[in-house]
Automatic annotation (TrEMBL):
<feature type="binding site">
    <location>
        <begin position="152"/>
        <end position="157"/>
    </location>
    <ligand>
        <name>NADP(+)</name>
    </ligand>
</feature>
<comment type="pathway">
    <text>Metabolic intermediate biosynthesis; chorismate biosynthesis; chorismate from D-erythrose 4-phosphate and phosphoenolpyruvate: step 4/7.</text>
</comment>
<feature type="binding site">
    <location>
        <position position="249"/>
    </location>
    <ligand>
        <name>NADP(+)</name>
    </ligand>
</feature>
<feature type="domain" description="Quinate/shikimate 5-dehydrogenase/glutamyl-tRNA reductase">
    <location>
        <begin position="118"/>
        <end position="168"/>
    </location>
</feature>
<comment type="function">
    <text>Involved in the biosynthesis of the chorismate, which leads to the biosynthesis of aromatic amino acids. Catalyzes the reversible NADPH linked reduction of 3-dehydroshikimate (DHSA) to yield shikimate (SA).</text>
</comment>
<dbReference type="GO" id="GO:0019632">
    <property type="term" value="P:shikimate metabolic process"/>
</dbReference>
<dbReference type="GO" id="GO:0009073">
    <property type="term" value="P:aromatic amino acid family biosynthetic process"/>
</dbReference>
<comment type="subunit">
    <text>Homodimer.</text>
</comment>
<dbReference type="GO" id="GO:0008652">
    <property type="term" value="P:amino acid biosynthetic process"/>
</dbReference>
<dbReference type="Pfam" id="PF08501">
    <property type="entry name" value="Shikimate_dh_N"/>
</dbReference>
<feature type="binding site">
    <location>
        <position position="227"/>
    </location>
    <ligand>
        <name>shikimate</name>
    </ligand>
</feature>
<dbReference type="InterPro" id="IPR011342">
    <property type="entry name" value="Shikimate_DH"/>
</dbReference>
<feature type="binding site">
    <location>
        <position position="256"/>
    </location>
    <ligand>
        <name>shikimate</name>
    </ligand>
</feature>
<keyword id="KW-0028">Amino-acid biosynthesis</keyword>
<dbReference type="Pfam" id="PF01488">
    <property type="entry name" value="Shikimate_DH"/>
</dbReference>
<comment type="similarity">
    <text>Belongs to the shikimate dehydrogenase family.</text>
</comment>
<dbReference type="GO" id="GO:0009423">
    <property type="term" value="P:chorismate biosynthetic process"/>
</dbReference>
Length: 287
């Protein structure tokens, strides 16, 4: 029998997840369907429960429901609990809903496997302290960089994030600090970073985080969790300021999906062909 999966979000019509999971299914010979379901906040929990009651096997969850997804689950992986949010739900044989968060591992696999970057001993600047930042911080710490500095427009959220992850940072011997948002543009206040990760949604508002040339170490990598057909505003600003390498979040998207697929099906798909197909699709959308 064909198994049913879906992604829940609001809005959801731009989601690439149905394409990605259909490609994974075809590649691995898995018999499944994967659809996008638009669910505003008021109906999200009911929509997920109905989907599972009607035979759905698993689901992805995207903005703005990742925290609500964790809340509705009966049990969750440690990494979802650490993140305080879930992007993957699994309906177990005994009728329980199990939550996971694959965003962090998706980012790390993209950085290390696809782009060949090692994070060990590196100085990382993390811009943003929302759901995505929360989801990637634990795996970033576990990759043993020398230091992670968190800067967020709303300082209190950056402070809360570093306080919550302080014990983990101590365990992995990582210096975890915050930097006031306004100081990002002050040359003398900023040490250079090897990797600057943009986990804000500033681009959606047509803006970029404030940046200065002094932020970037000579071989610095700029990584934007957002992706698009053309370089994001953050990546364009990073290039102008001297970042040596620019990477967007398309690979992370494919890798987090592969981890969900593995959780549901016990099969690990090859991500590179799907990544390349999406890149081509995006490029064609602007032609
Ligand atoms: P949230 O809404 O949880 O957090 C948004 C973050 O962006 C907050 O830190 C917020 O700061 C900041 N922000 C929003 N607007 C601005 C602005 N105009 N200037 C500066 N900072 C701003 O979103 P998520 O954390 O879930 O997502 C963040 C980004 O990551 C999104 O673009 C999303 O698409 C992307 N993402 C990509 C994934 C992938 O697989 N490639 C996976 C997950 C997310 P404040 O606290 O001050 O409001």
């Amino acid at each position: 029998m064909t198994d049913r999966y879906a992604v829940f979000g609001h809005p959801i019509h731009h989601s690439k997840s149905p394409f990605i999971h259909s490609a994974f299914a075809q590649q691995t010979g898995q018999d499944l369907t994967y659809t996008a379901i638009d669910a505003p906040a008021e109906t999200f929990t009911t929509a997920v429960r109905t989907f599972f009651a009607e035979g759905g096997k698993g689901a992805n969850v995207t903005v703005p429901h990742k925290e609500a997804a964790l809340a509705l689950a009966d049990d969750a992986t440690p990494r979802a609990q650490e993140a305080g949010a879930a992007n993957t739900l699994l309906f177990t044989a005994d009728g329980a809903i199990y939550a996971d968060n694959t965003d962090g591992v998706g980012l790390i696999r993209d950085l290390t496997n696809r782009w060949g970057l090692s994070l060990e001993g590196k100085r990382i600047l993390l811009l943003g302290a929302g759901g995505a930042a929360k989801g990637i911080l634990a795996p970033l710490i576990a990759a043993r960089p020398r230091a992670i500095t968190v800067a967020n427009r709303t300082a209190a959220r950056a402070e809360a994030l570093t306080t919550a992850f302080a014990p983990l940072a101590v365990r992995f011997d990582v210096t975890l600090t915050t930097l006031p948002w306004a100081q990002l543009v002050h040359r003398e206040a900023t040490p250079p970073f090897d990797l600057v990760l943009n986990a804000t949604s500033a681009s959606l508002a047509g803006s970029t985080p404030p940046l200065s040339r002094a932020l970037w170490a000579p071989d610095a990598v700029a990584y934007d969790l957002m992706y698009g057909a053309t370089p994001t505003p953050f990546l364009m600003a990073a290039q102008q300021q001297g970042a040596a390498r620019l990477i967007d979040g398309l690979g992370m998207l494919v890798e987090q999906a592969a981890e969900s697929f593995w959780l549901w099906r016990g099969v690990r798909p090859e991500t590179e062909p799907v990544f390349q197909a999406l890149r081509t699709q995006l490029a064609a959308s602007t032609a």
